[in-house]
């Protein structure tokens, strides 16, 4: 196996499995937690992430195919999507292609939110283009999220665009499609503005 990413919660490996190129996402042991509690948390989060990916697929959002789940090892064995991260390509595209991708991002997030799915880490690093747009890494997600959670999801994406990408219109293009497909988009927009105000207030008082 080839380790391709090590995060605080999980290690991501590229490997071969039954003749296929795959990704293995393995949740790592947290030394600061009691061992039995740690096992239970990793088992639960592995099952929850697999469930969210299945739910996302049901509502029409492309995600890697899950081949197997090992709750003892806290692993998800899934399809290797051999595409390009949106983070790596969007700045090199012309505005027409950027807008098309951003509209597709907005449409897909609307599908997730319409079905109560919160991604939890909406950044352009977690979106892959391979003929169609794939969403990956639902490890911080949840089902049944409320308006606050949706606002946090979208605010995180807005911050990711502002921090990592040069075109200031990208998030606006995401949102214009999001509001076409999600009837609570106006409330989410208000929640984003509220989150921004809270952030400014916290910076002033700190």
Structure notes:
The protein is an alpha+beta fold. The protein folds into two domains: 2-79, Phosphorylase Kinase, domain 1, CATH 3.30.200; 84-205, Transferase(Phosphotransferase) domain 1 (Transferase(Phosphotransferase), domain 1, Orthogonal Bundle). The protein has helices at residues 35-58, 86-89, 95-114, 147-164, 170-181, 185-205; strands at 2-6, 10-17, 20-27, 66-70, 75-79, 84-85, 117-118, 127-130, 132-135, 142-143. A five-stranded antiparallel beta sheet has the order 1-2-3-5-4, with helices on one face. It has a three-stranded antiparallel beta sheet with strand order 6-8-9. A hairpin with a 1-residue loop joins strand 8 (127-130) and strand 9 (132-135). It starts with a strand and ends with a helix.
């Amino acid at each position: 196996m080839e380790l391709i990413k090590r995060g605080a919660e999980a290690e991501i490996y590229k490997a071969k499995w039954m003749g296929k190129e795959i990704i293995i996402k393995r949740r790592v042991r947290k030394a600061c937690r009691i061992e039995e509690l740690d096992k239970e948390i990793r088992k639960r989060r592995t099952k929850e992430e697999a469930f969210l990916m299945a739910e996302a697929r049901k509502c029409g959002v492309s995600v890697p195919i899950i081949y197997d789940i090992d709750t003892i090892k806290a692993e998800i064995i899934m399809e290797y999507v051999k595409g390009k991260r949106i983070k790596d390509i969007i700045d090199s595209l012309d505005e027409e292609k950027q807008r098309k991708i951003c509209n597709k991002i907005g449409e897909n997030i609307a599908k997730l939110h319409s079905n109560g799915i919160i991604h939890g880490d909406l950044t352009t690093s977690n979106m892959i283009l391979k003929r169609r747009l794939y969403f990956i890494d639902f490890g911080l997600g949840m089902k049944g999220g409320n308006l606050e959670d949706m606002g946090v999801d979208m605010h995180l994406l807005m911050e990711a665009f502002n921090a990592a990408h040069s075109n200031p219109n990208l998030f606006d293009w995401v949102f214009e499609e999001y509001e076409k497909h999600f009837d609570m988009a106006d409330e989410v927009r208000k929640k984003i503005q509220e989150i921004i105000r809270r952030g400014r207030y916290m910076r002033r008082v700190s």
